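Hi everyone,

Forwarding the result from last night's run.
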Amino acid sequence: MLKSDENRRQHPENDHGTLGPRNRVRYNIGVKPSIFVVEDDPDISRLVRHHLENEGFTVRVYPTGANVIADAERQRPALFVLDIMVPGKDGLELCRTVRQTVGLASVPVIFLTAKSSEADRVLGLELGADDYIAKPFSPRELVARVKAVLRRFERPLPPSPMKVGEIEIDPSAMTLTVRGTPVPTTATEFRLLDYFARHSGRVFTRDHLLDSVWRDTAYVTPRSVDVYVRRIREKIEPDPENPRYLKTVRGAGYRFEAPK
């Protein structure tokens, strides 16, 4: 019998998110959130699996990106953790495919990679990542950031749909329609756009947006807001270089305006 099977037999409460009397209840639900980890280094993948499973997650590890999308379409994960430099379909290409796949586009993505320059981070965010963790990393930091990303998506949105110009936002279905055409978004993009649209005319600093939309701001920077604003403009603006809706207020931040 495998040690993990023996442990479940001796401690069946672990299958429901309770990890013993010395630990807090992490995810006290019948089905554990599933995380797909793409990592070709066996030592790192074992470390990631161990710490995430100890926090109540179900973890599937892939040494390459070959079968990730097909498996995710059969069983949608709660989150992807992607190494960028893996054999075959690398993490950047995987992230791009996730964002272009109906049914997966809103699943959060965290990059876990040795490519740690600012340019690499910005590229990851521009491709649709929700966070970016550089190697070497602290397992406790990894767990904290996984939880932070998932908490961001668990917060309820206002239920009422709204229409601004040619943009329709439906929080209950988490859908964006622009000029009559459905436009896929990540959960972070959607929440940021929804926040802007519901506070039309107000100027927000980057720090305010981080506090209001991200909330868990220990691991994100004001530059992240700029990347997301650029991505939102590409999806809603007829001419992203001359925005009608989401405008820059020099020296202050950003303001969403309803076209007149």
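Residues 1-30 have pLDDT under 50 and may be disordered.

Cheers,
N.
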